[in-house]
Recover the amino acids of this structure.
C-alpha cells in the first residue's frame, strides 16, 4: 500500500498545500516534471512517496 493511501483526504490536502508553499518559496522539487505548477508537483511527490513529511495523530 502506498504512503498516500494511508492519509485522509484532509491530511493529503494539508500535505500538498504545505509542500506546494515550500516549492513556491524556492524549495527544490523532489521529482522531475515539465510543469512549474507547485500544486501539481506537490501532488506528484505525494503519489511517488518521496515527501519527507509525517503526520502526527492524537490517540
Amino acid at each position: 500500500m502506498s504512503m498516500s493511501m494511508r492519509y485522509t483526504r484532509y491530511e493529503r490536502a494539508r500535505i500538498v498545500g504545505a509542500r506546494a508553499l515550500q516549492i513556491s518559496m524556492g524549495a527544490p522539487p523532489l521529482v522531475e516534471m515539465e510543469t512549474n505548477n507547485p500544486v501539481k508537483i506537490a501532488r506528484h511527490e505525494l503519489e511517488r512517496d518521496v515527501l519527507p513529511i509525517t503526520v502526527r495523530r492524537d490517540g
